[in-house]
Amino acid sequence: MDYSTLKSVLEGLLFVSGDEGISAKTAAEVVETDVEVVKDVLKDLQKELAKKNRGIRIAEVAGGYRLTTVINHAPYFEKLAYSPTRAALSQAALETLSIIAYRQPITRIEIEEIRGVKADRALHNLVNKDLIEEKGRADALGRPILYGTTKSFLDYFGLASIASLPEPSLADGDDELEERTKMLFDRIEGRQLSMEDMDKELDTD
Question: GO cellular-component terms in the record (predicted)?
């Protein structure tokens, strides 16, 4: 294997190794090359990425090597992580969002009574994604927070206003919630968001 190919293969191994990384010994066994040669190539690749100001770097962690991002780029990664147009919605979050969208302003306790399960995690995620926000306090014991949707919610689902939400047919309880949730799923599909990505989030809330 020539030097250029070896460097390319090692870069690929780092990529598929993910956060766990790979040791020089393991990499050497895979490419059937001496460990010291692998270390030299990785150091060369490490310098090359930095010199060319690439968006990834090679870090040595706990005796292994792994790909990392440039620390100065962190604000952009945080912006992406919290962008509602990029972040996937779990089933729990979507059900909670459906209730809030159609019955706002509404308290956490009222949401939990409708869903039959705790809503703390879903509410936290929806707030972080700027899809819901506090709309004041309810005139009840403890003055619980009232939740409602945001402008980002309208942008996310391509709605001109809350009045543009699709009208569900007359139904009660779980049937109504299921229909409203399906309607928002349809909106997501219209935005061409990955259903596969959402499936990965189904058990997170």
Answer: cytoplasm
158, part of any domain? yes
pLDDT in tens, 114-169: 888 888 888 988 988 889 999 999 888 888 999 999 998 888 777 788 888 777 65
What gap in Å lies between CA 84 and CA 100, rounded to an integer?
Answer: 16
Contact 139, 146 (CB under 8 A): no
Say if residue 116 is in the same domain as residue 30: no
Tokens of 140: 């009840």
Among 86, 82, 97, 78, residue whose Cα is nearest residue 205: 97
Could you tell me if 133 and 170 lie in one domain?
yes
Which residue from 146, 168, 147, 166 is spatially nearest to 157, judged by alpha carbons? 166
Quick check: is 34 in a domain?
yes
Which residue type does 111 have? I
- Number of domains forming the structure of the chain: 2
Mean of all residue pLDDT scores within the chain: 80
Rounded Cα distance between 95 and 198, Å, is 13
